[in-house]
Fold:
Amino acid sequence: MDQTRDDRSLGELFGDLTRSLSTLIRQELELARTEMTARAGRLSQGAGMVGVGGALLYAAVLGAMAVVTLGLVELGLAAWLAALVVTIVVAVLGGLLVASGRGELKKADLVPRRTIETVREDADWAKERFQ
Structure:
């Protein structure tokens, strides 16, 4: 196998190496930032569902419980029993929304896998070059 001869000095070679590594690190950081931004967007959807579920629970407690409780009292239920029935129904609905949002949050993968893979490849390449 023929080896090509490089007439650059050792200082020039190290200078080139330093510049190349600096560029590589900047590119890897940019890739990590881009990858994390995309994942954060997906994560915000699940967080939004949890927030909406919580807001609905709160609104339901304030409004619907009073109205439906009074309706059940008009139908002949005791006031405490009517309030209990309404509270349980609203809590179940809100809990389902919160559980759905939490499920989305758990599915979110925040590890920048592409960046990790390219860093590994870069490290392997550097090891091969300096052996």
